[in-house]
């Protein structure tokens, strides 16, 4: 009888697994549809220089408009990244849409960097750089303002291929950021092998900065490495004035997070920029207590 029960549970797990695979499959097909039907849209979240309040640029974040609601990447990006063809199509879409947006903003007098997130499967695809070239050919003026964000985890998957892809980007004049830094155990050695010009401290560390000495140590260490390698550092997920203050004191100048702005539709950014004022606590002398 116990054996029967065991088989029953096993069958149940199998059914769960099949349901799960079926859901992923369905989601992937819906997403392909969404790409073709134009249901995808980019929202933009500002990255600002805390030391003087200037706007460094915007990160482009994908959103899926479906039946009047906005689906967030957490509900579909994993399923998308399981299929190389889909990641590539998404990557081509965001590169094109971001380059077009840069051109619009430049025409309106806004010199903002725009960064796009590129999935590992796309970055490691030999066709990645052809996709970049396609977009740059159509938007040559956008080139120096376009930045590629690659997660540290993706970069560590295949360092040689990643380096080759990122080097090709830099040769074309693009900027490169290492995203979610601190989560993939990258060492200084790895860091100096990648042609990045910016590191983004993962929001998990930023969120713990004021409470956990360990998070503070990781951030301080990263900032020291970054200074040695001449890299910009962006703190993700800045939600309080105090976090920003401490980051500034540690030598981190650029911040991104809900305190500054949530990701917004492109049309909303000019009004946001007109009203943007950094907290008084951030302004003033740029002294850093850390070396
Ligand atoms: P990410 O690149 O690390 O993006 C930062 C995420 O943190 C965004 O979530 C953003 O809305 C959120 N965030 C920003 N400020 C704060 C804050 O102060 N507090 C908190 N709690 N969160 C904050 P989002 O837009 O849901 O994107 C999640 C992830 O999905 C991104 O993480 C990125 O890995 C992926 N993703 C987004 N767009 C794309 C895309 O176009 N292509 C690919 N391949 N991945 C994308
Ligand atoms: Mg990112
Ligand atoms: Mg990130
Ligand atoms: Mg993150």
TrEMBL record:
Coiled coil: none annotated. Residues 24-277 form the EAL domain. It comes from the Bacteria. This is Diguanylate cyclase DosC. It comes from Acidihalobacter yilgarnensis. The lineage of its organism: Bacteria, Pseudomonadati, Pseudomonadota, Gammaproteobacteria, Chromatiales. The chain holds residues 482 to 772 of 902 of the full protein.
